[in-house]
Design a protein that fits this description.
- Catalyzes the NADPH-dependent rearrangement and reduction of 1-deoxy-D-xylulose-5-phosphate (DXP) to 2-C-methyl-D-erythritol 4-phosphate (MEP).
- One of its GO terms (molecular function) is NADPH binding.
- It catalyses: 2-C-methyl-D-erythritol 4-phosphate + NADP(+) = 1-deoxy-D-xylulose 5-phosphate + NADPH + H(+).
- Pfam families: DXP_redisom_C, DXP_reductoisom, DXPR_C.
- Pathway: Isoprenoid biosynthesis; isopentenyl diphosphate biosynthesis via DXP pathway; isopentenyl diphosphate from 1-deoxy-D-xylulose 5-phosphate: step 1/6.
- The chain is of the alpha/beta class and 378 residues long.
- The protein has 2 domains: 143 residues, Rossmann fold (3-Layer(aba) Sandwich), CATH 3.40.50; 165 residues, no CATH class.
- It is 43% helix and 16% strand.
- The strands form 2 sheets. Strands 4-3-2-1-5-6-7 form a 7-stranded parallel β-sheet, sandwiched between helices. Strands 11-10-8-9-12 form a 5-stranded mixed β-sheet, covered by helices on one side.
- A hairpin with a 4-residue loop joins strand 10 and strand 11.
- Helix 8 crosses helix 13.
- The radius of gyration is 20 Å and the shape is globular.
Length: 378
């Protein structure tokens, strides 16, 4: 029986993690979890899974939970989040929190020897070198949950990393993959949230539409697989059937295929190094018929180009890029800026930033907080 902790349990990935625990209750048990303000969801999770500890964001919501007859500790806020992340019974922690707020809990879990099922891209985007070094020192596994990185992780099983020629990360193209830049000037929030393949949270869906999501994944892949950025490519693949590929020095290319369902990479992370069966839709290539690929246009997808630039420069520039993107996406979700304003604001702030090289954790957190506190106008 593997004991599971989940951060961001009320989000899309967190809920699918609960699905996996529910499907394999003979193998996995939820022992800890954290949600934001979703008290009703927290109550449902407590009632169904009977975990040991739960964290909610606001102390004022504690009295809204019905805990009669339940042996559970309820905590709140940032300190509570760390307590859940480092809970001693956790064998593996699914970190599916959105944003760089996921960094501290990841490091805290690593320090407590807990394996990480990582769905929080920003942890590695802003502090990848620090996180991976800490994991190596503690002997902790960082198991990728993003479908692209899980695919690469699976393709590399049993392979010698020195034989890697390049990683090829696939991208669906998001909600606006068939639109020109001129057509993007008038797109609506409703249009942006209509992803053709995946069911995800709002922030990730917008990131997919701008292609920043793929940019974050490129940076994440650099740290996860310890490769120079020159060996990480992206390609458009609108069906989202091939989740990513690895090319080796003998010209072989190994790919991982599957239906667009986040439950598969979550299950693989929970089960690793084993595999467990799923009673789910099987990939039928005859029904799919055709797989399409297209070269990535970095002029069309400016946010992806900005991400490549951020990691090539390094230092604090990826921190700035990520922080400004988080704020700009929220401004778009709130109807305060247009879709194309997102990339305009990010590029402007990156251009103006004076980079600190080799930043420590305190510097990273300070820069992140600074750029998230600013008021951005177009």
């Amino acid at each position: 029986m593997k004991h599971i902790g989940i951060l961001g349990a009320s989000g899309s990935v967190g809920m699918q993690g609960l699905d996996i625990i529910r499907e394999h209750s003979d193998s996995f048990k939820l022992v800890s979890f954290a949600v934001g303000k979703s008290v009703e969801v927290a109550q449902n999770i407590i009632d169904e899974f009977e975990p040991d500890i739960c964290c909610i964001q606001n102390e004022s919501d504690l009295n809204k939970l019905n805990l009669k007859g339940k042996q559970i500790e309820v905590v709140f806020g940032d300190e509570g989040l760390l307590k859940v992340a480092g809970y001693e019974k956790n064998d593996i922690l699914l970190n599916s929190i959105l944003g760089s707020v996921g960094l501290k809990p990841t490091l805290h879990a690593i320090d407590n020897g807990i394996d990480i099922a990582l769905a929080n891209k920003e942890t590695l985007v802003v502090a990848g070198e620090i996180v991976m070094q800490r994991a190596r020192e503690k002997g902790v596994n960082i198991l990728p949950v993003d479908s692209e990185h899980s695919a690469i992780f699976q393709c590399l099983n049993g392979e010698n990393h020195k034989n890697i020629e390049k990683l090829i990360i696939t991208a669906s193209g998001g909600s606006f993959r068939d639109k020109t830049r001129e057509q993007l000037k008038d797109v609506t929030l409703e249009d942006a949230l209509n992803h053709p393949n995946w069911s995800m949270g709002k922030k990730i869906t917008i990131d997919s539409a701008t292609m920043m999501n793929k940019g974050l994944e490129v940076i994440e892949a650099k740290w996860l697989f310890d490769l120079p950025i020159e060996k990480i490519e992206t390609i458009l693949h609108k069906q989202s059937i091939i989740h990513s590929m690895v090319e080796f020095n003998d010209t072989s290319v190994i790919a991982q295929l599957g239906t667009p369902d986040m439950r598969m990479p979550i299950l693989y992370a929970f089960s690793y190094p084993d595999r467990k069966p799923r009673n789910a839709e099987r990939l039928d290539l005859a029904q799919v018929g055709t797989l399409d690929f297209k070269k990535m246009d970095l002029e069309r997808y400016k946010c992806l180009a900005l991400a490549y630039r951020a990691i090539e420069v390094g230092g604090t520039l990826p921190v700035v890029m990520n922080a400004v993107n988080e704020v700009a996406v929220q401004l778009f979700l709130d109807g305060k800026i247009s879709f194309l304003d997102i990339e305009t604001i990010i590029e402007r702030e990156m251009d103006a930033h004076i980079v600190t090289e080799n930043p420590g954790l305190d510097t990273i957190l300070a820069v992140d907080a600074d750029y998230k506190s600013r008021n951005y106008e177009v």
